[in-house]
Amino acid sequence: MKTAQLHNIFLEFPEICTDTRKIKENSIFFALKGDNFNGNKYASAALENGAAYAVIDEKEYAESDKHILVDDVLKTLQELASFHRNYSNARVIALTGSNGKTTTKELINAVLSKKYRTIATKGNLNNHIGVPLTLLSIKEDTEIAIVEMGANHQKEIEFLCSLALPDFGYITNFGKAHIEGFGSEEGVIKGKSELYDFLTKHNKHIFINGDDPIQFKKLGSYIKKYGFSSDQKEFYRIEFLGANPFVKLSFENCNIESQLIGSYNFTNCAAAILMGKYFNVGVDKIKDAIESYSPNNNRSQIISHKGHQIILDAYNANPTSMKAALENFAQMEGIHKVAFLGDMFELGEIAPAEHQNIANLARELNFDDVILVGENFYKTSTSYKKHSSFGELKDFLKDQKLSPESLILIKGSRGMALERILDVV
């Protein structure tokens, strides 16, 4: 079946499902494959559960005219998404970066939705499957689509751009993330900059942090760039007013107090403000959008728990974000400060050194207590309490009581799932 024909079916049944456990009535089921599953086996079940069609790529499972047989289900999904993006009149904003992508995406959506009909990447569905699903969520009346793009190897952002064909782009930052795949910090910069490469090649618009020397240098002579800065006169002025604990900032004599902790969230807010100004969203509406946004999903949340104040930042971690979180924690006021730090993944050969650097930094910042969790932190040279697994930490915490009214930081990579600490402290 040609992509145009499949798109006509999609327009009639514009709901895509890839998981038979979440089938919606009159959706199209795409039988994706993975290392440990074969969606083709569940195509008939998807139809029985209400799907209108099932797209498969193994002939033996084509049991009816509701089974659409293609050469490759994933490739078909991607081609359909690209076709639909071209069919739509929506303007596409793409963003990537080492840290802060999802928070920035949500802030941009909060601001722009004050004036426009928007859609945005759900959660962090930002890879070769998530981006197509986001593009396919564009409706007939969608005016702006905000598409988050993640990558851990070269050429991935380039490929995602070929699907999304963004009109605008923004890179949050370049940090020590996914070094195992990118090879080095220079590799990270090169990989993330594939978004800039696409936009400049096609003469599209770029938003930048004018205070970031890497971005400033890369785009110094590019005309279609719009930046924010605290001191660069050629860019839109947004001033950082502090973060104790919540980020405060100012633009056009308008002061904003966000619900986001840490100075590292200033640029995330500033990017959303910049785009709001570019798209002519009113200052009052921008202020309301930023101040109303509340973080969730274990991202820089401040919660009260059994008398303690907890900064729950357990969604992800790399050396750059870990350093920022610790430095911010050091500036916060607390009677008794405790940091739970979990392993940082996908660092490859630099993992031992980077975990040792973080342990050393924690020592320099002189917290009341630091507890390290994970195989990498367990190998560090430090006097801090170390546990090679969460199970060991759990056993330790059963017999350990934290000081009353402690200020607690919980930070680690997603695979560590350190939010489980809340169940045992």
TrEMBL record:
Q: What does this protein do?
A: Involved in cell wall formation. Catalyzes the final step in the synthesis of UDP-N-acetylmuramoyl-pentapeptide, the precursor of murein.
Keywords from UniProt, A to Z, are:
ATP-binding, Cell cycle, Cell division, Cell shape, Cell wall biogenesis/degradation, Cytoplasm, Ligase, Nucleotide-binding, Peptidoglycan synthesis
Q: Where in the cell is it found?
A: Cytoplasm
Question: What is the originating organism of this protein?
Answer: Zobellia amurskyensis
The UniProt annotation places ATP binding at G97, S98, N99, G100, K101, T102, T103
Domain called Mur ligase C-terminal: residue spans: 299-414
Q: Any idea where the Mur ligase N-terminal catalytic domain is? A: 16-84
Q: Where is the Mur ligase central domain?
A: 96-275
This chain belongs to which protein, by name? Answer: UDP-N-acetylmuramoyl-tripeptide--D-alanyl-D-alanine ligase
> GO terms for CC?
cytoplasm
Instruction: List the InterPro entries.
Output: Mur-like_cat_sf, Mur_ligase_C, Mur_ligase_C_dom_sf, Mur_ligase_cen, Mur_ligase_N, MurCDEF_CellWall_CoF430Synth, MurE/MurF_N, UDP-N-AcMur_synth
Pathway assignment reads: Cell wall biogenesis; peptidoglycan biosynthesis
